Amino acid sequence: MRIMIVEDEQRARRGLYNLLTSISDEVEIVAEAPDGKKALELIAATRPDVVFTDIKMPYMDGIALIKAVKALGIESRFVIVSAYEDFQTAKAAISNGVTEFLIKPVTYEETEAVLEKLKALLENKPSAGIRDLRKKYPDAHPAVLKALRIIQVNYAVKISQKELAESQGITQEYFSYLFTRDIGEPFSKFLKNYRIEVAKTLLLEDGIPREEVPYSIGFSDVKYFNKVFKEVTGESVAEFVRSRKNYF
User: Fold this and answer.
1) Predicted confidence (pLDDT) per residue in 29-41, tens digit
2) Strand pairing of 28-33 and 77-82?
3) pTM to 2 decimals?
4) Where does 2-123 sit in CATH, by number?
5) Residues forming beta bridges with residue 2, ordered by sequence position
């Protein structure tokens, strides 16, 4: 598991380094940063599996860092390690898809449990059948294939059809025509359906709490996610899970 540590206090940073590496020999600390700005540069360069980050830091705080990383389409998971235990901070963390929120001083047992959860999450990503979109549409136009690659990597963040078209030097109208022709449905409908397919996979796995699923696939509003989920599947989230698992 490739981990990065973001902490402005050197002593705390070293302590977390020693703690993480003492728990598991599968842990590799790939980078350390004293502030959010430097962390963003290193995350873009190293693409860690997990980032352990403080909240209060110079230049860019932890929440702003998480938002910036997601905007880049990088799929690193985040664990917040903070001395501030307040509702607004926790709410902001949850809304941005943070995996865990640890309160300083962290204990060996708490950190070990978090690493076990992270390992399960990393080993239980949506199946290749859902994610490998280009193999599903091998004859699509190159512009469409590039869009599919972006969707399968960046489905958890905002994806603009206009920006996809402009990045490839074509008009939005032409891109829309190509996508609908080769995929069989409009871009917006395909993206919505794809996100729901990923959500269905996540809902049936034990690695991620159900309340975090909407944020993990690009929805910022749970009520809207529930509405879209029922539109696409014909079932509520509860009905979908109940029909496939023996709990609730």
Assistant:
1) 999 999 988 999 8
2) unpaired
3) 0.51
4) 3.40.50.2300
5) 28
